[in-house]
Amino acid sequence: MTLKRPTIGPLISVTVAVVLGTYFAFSAVQGEYGILRRVQIEAEIEAKRAERDDLRVQVDRMANLTHRLSDDYLDLDLLDARAREVLGAMRSDEIVIR
């Protein structure tokens, strides 16, 4: 009776297949284009969208104030408030409380 020696070829093939499968699975989860990176990018996108919305509100508010102080449309109350704030002006019948 002769004993057959196990061949090394199938063992190497299986080992290479397992290593490659593990590498691709790891890359799919934690790689540069993996699932975890995608979740991180989506969170950054939501944060940037919220920041963009806040900036739009600020721009709209500044555009409204600019329009109200323009030559075409003059809001006297706003002009009076800005003059008091910038110049420190006040009317003679006002009382200042500090």
Automatic annotation (TrEMBL):
<protein>
    <submittedName>
        <fullName>Septum formation initiator</fullName>
    </submittedName>
</protein>
<feature type="coiled-coil region">
    <location>
        <begin position="38"/>
        <end position="65"/>
    </location>
</feature>
<dbReference type="InterPro" id="IPR007060">
    <property type="entry name" value="FtsL/DivIC"/>
</dbReference>
<keyword id="KW-0175">Coiled coil</keyword>
<dbReference type="Pfam" id="PF04977">
    <property type="entry name" value="DivIC"/>
</dbReference>
